[in-house]
């Protein structure tokens, strides 16, 4: 899918990529550390004695076998941090999308501002006349409930989570299995909620698919004049704007082709917008 890469969306993609890289680096690092510690199996020395030059090693000052056992469960602990972080990035982006709908006169500013994680997608669908992927929204809600149980219930499943996990649709269950190679989690009330590698992968995949669908909806429902304004803002933010009219037009056209390709702006539209802003 070709996306409209306006400023907020580019910022979202950058934050998401940085989070993804950091999460996978930490996960790989924990596995590398566990592999390295296997070489010290049977030692009675602490890690600070074996690796005295490693920064912060005294904060993890355990004997080799205990440290190895902890690192083997690192996926769970990373998931507890990664899933809420990824959901926060996604939810912040969806709020920005609602503000774009507000700029386009499609939703009241107060509605956009007061949107919650549980309602943000439904609000977007209603006010943009966009149908988001059903199975992705269902899985997002499942992950959101798991996140809420970890943060607000000490990691024990709520009745709402138990109900949602037991009623997951075949389409959503198939999507989860395809993304993670695991069956979707099911819970009874008060079960322990674990967030691990599967949940992290599912969160990355689900939020990516929803964000792309939202991007397509914005491209369709927001007026063309608004996107031209965004194109001009990108042009004006360019560090080295050319001095001649032809080169200015060429730069604006390049921005249009690279960031706003799905909108297929004509040269006549771009030129008129540049003239209106005094650039030609």
Share of residues in helices:
55-70%
- DSSP strand (E) fraction? under 5%
The helix/strand series, from N terminus to C terminus, equals HHHHHHHHHHHHH
Indicate the radius of gyration in whole angstroms: 24 Å
Main sheet summary: none
How many strands?
0
- Gross morphology is globular
- End-to-end Cα distance, whole Å, is 33 Å
List segments where confidence is low: pLDDT < 50 over at least 5 consecutive residues.
Answer: none
The chain-level mean pLDDT equals: 94
**Total helical elements:** 13
Report the structural category: mainly alpha
Which features does this protein show?
globular, mainly alpha, single chain, 13 helices, 280 residues
